[in-house]
Design a protein that fits this description.
This protein is an alpha+beta fold and 264 residues long. The protein contains 9 helices and 8 strands. Among the domains are: 145 residues, Glutaredoxin (3-Layer(aba) Sandwich); 36 residues. 34% of the residues lie in helices and 17% in strands. It has an 8-stranded mixed beta sheet with strand order 1-8-7-4-5-6-2-3. The relative contact order is 0.14.
Length: 264
Amino acid sequence: MTTSMDNMRMGERPAMRTPPVVTLQEWEAARAQLLVKEKALTRARDALAAERRRMPWMAVDTGYAFEGPAGKVSLLDLFEGRRQLIVYRAFFEPGVFGWPDHACRGCSIVADQVAHVAHLNARDTSLAFVSRAPQEDIARLKRRMGWKIPWFTLTDRFDADFGVGEWHGTNVFYRDGDRVFRTYFVNNRGDEQMGGTWNYLDITPLGRQEVWEDSPEGYPQTPTYKWWNWHDSYAADAAPDEKWVEVSDAGEAAFRNRQPSTNL
C-alpha cells in the first residue's frame, strides 16, 4: 500500500483529504452552524473597532519632512486638508529585493489590493505610502505597476520613530487644526487585511462614520450607505442622491427582513 510519505519520496503530492460531498439540506445545515461563529466574529470585530476608536492619542511634535512629486512636504501636508491620515511604510529602496525594478514583494501585494482612495477621501481620510526611494524611482514604479496611491520619499527619522524602520507597518494620524496625533499602529500579519476601504476606516479614530457604529459622543456619523458613491462622482458637501437613498433604503429593509440566521 502506497502511503503519503511514499508519494512525497517519489515527488508526488499526498492525496487531498477533502470534505464529504453532501445534499443541499446537509450543506445548508453545515453553513448555518458555521454562520453562528461567523456572526460572532463580525460582532467581535465591530466591538474591537469601537474600542480602537477610544484609544488614547499621542501628540506628534516633530516636524517630519518628505519629498513628493511637487517637492518638499510636511506630515501635515500629507493630510491634504483632511482630518485623518493613514501612512503605510513600503520598502522600495536600494538593498530591497527587487530594486530597482520592483518594491518588496509583500509591500507590492499590499499596494495591489488598495481600493480606490476616493472612498477614503469621502470619509475625510487620506492614504499615503512612504519609502526611501527617490521620487523619480517611485514615479517609474507606479507607472509600471499601475498604482495611483500618493507615495512620498522619507527624508528623516519618521520610519524609525514610528516603528517602521526595519519592517512594514501602518500608522494612523488625526489632525486637529495644525496639531497632529498618532492614534493607531498595526504591522506584521495585521497588515495583511489592509487595502479595503472598510478595513482602513476601521483602524481610524473616526471609523466608518455611520450611525450604527458605537463611537464616542460627538463623533461624526451619517446614515448607513447614504454617502456611498461611484469613485468618480463624489462631490464635497453634496447631499445624498435621492434615488440612491430610495434604493439603499429598500435594500436595507429587505436585508433586515430576511431570516436572521441567513446573513452576517
